[in-house]
Amino acid sequence: MSMLFAAALALPQGTGTTLISSSTATLGAAASSEPTTLSDPTLPGHTIYLPANLTAHNPLPVIVWGNGACSADSTTHHNFLLEVAAWGHIILVSGEPNASGSTTPEMMVESIDWAVENAGKGDWVKVDASKIAAAGMSCGGLEAYEQVSDERVSAFGIFNSGQFTESSTAEVVKKVKKPIFYFLGGESDIAYENGMRDFEAVPEGVPTWVGNVDTGHLGTYSQPKGGVYGTAAQHFFRWVLQGDESAAEYFRGGGAEADGWETDKRNLDKISA
To answer: How far apart are CA 94 and CA 105, in angstroms?
Structure first.
């Protein structure tokens, strides 16, 4: 039996759901078997990343993701997204594989709407739309920010991104009420000053964390498992969406620092999932 066919057997088999690819990367023992990417006609213009072995995950929280440069190519952060999905998340990515053009914040809204509409039903019976994170890299992070007033969103992940001006920081970041984590590439990251300014502007009492690692703007997304960004991200989403206290220790117990992140944090004791 081929690896691709074996992966397909564990995937939702609803009408029109199509297997796009299967990763052959070796994942950690604690992760599920190989993650996969799907298209579904009920969510046109998007790509779905999810663990191949769905039976190992119940429930399956949701991440809506915007790509760097607001690229419509959903494979832009492929290794990174496969790693995050492998730890028990369904990721709804704006765009399709190798597509041209740009995405919009409205496409992320479409992802959220789709998750809410389909969670707990049919092929998607394991999906839990009560736990949704909006996240993205660079321009995709700004798309995630556009969801700040959506009460359906439980957390925000801002990767190599930040508001362009002090006025936009004051206008947008003041609305943040849910946990928000920033993953930045150090002073050589073009988003460094913007992201740090946003971190400082997060309202008092909101759980927030910022980490910098000296990668510049492009991070380590293309490395196997997404490199240190993949490690940090899967711990973040496991904590805020799954309530995994072992993942929380990555941020509270020195794991991030051991991986090279320079960090600051506030109110992490207020995170509950």
So the answer is: 9
Neighbours of 266 (CB within 10 A): 16
Contact of 72 with 46, CB cutoff 8 Å? no
The number of domains in the chain is 1
For residue 210, pLDDT beyond 90: yes
CA distance to 146, 269, 273, per residue, from 235 (Å): 24, 16, 13
- Angle at 44 (CA atoms; ends 17, 67), nearest 5 degrees: 110
The pLDDT value recorded for residue 22 is 36
- Report if residue 32 sits inside a domain: no
Q: How far apart are CA 262 and CA 117, in angstroms?
A: 39
pTM of the model: 0.89
Domain holding 112, by residue range, is 39-268
Instruction: Please tell me the distance from the alpha carbon of residue 157 to that of residue 195, in angstroms, as a whole number.
Output: 11
Among the listed residues 152, 113, 157, 166, the one whose alpha carbon sits nearest the alpha carbon of residue 137: 157
On whether residue 195 sits in a domain, the answer given is yes
| Distance of alpha carbon 16 from alpha carbon 18, whole angstroms | 6
| Model confidence pLDDT, tens digit, residues 38-84 | 999 999 999 999 997 777 788 899 999 999 999 999 999 999 999 99
Cis peptide bond N-terminal to 105, omega within 30: no
CATH code where residue 120 lies: 3.40.50.1820
For residue 110, tell me if it sits in a domain: yes
Residue 226 lies in a domain: yes
Name the maximum alpha-carbon separation found in the chain.
Answer: 57
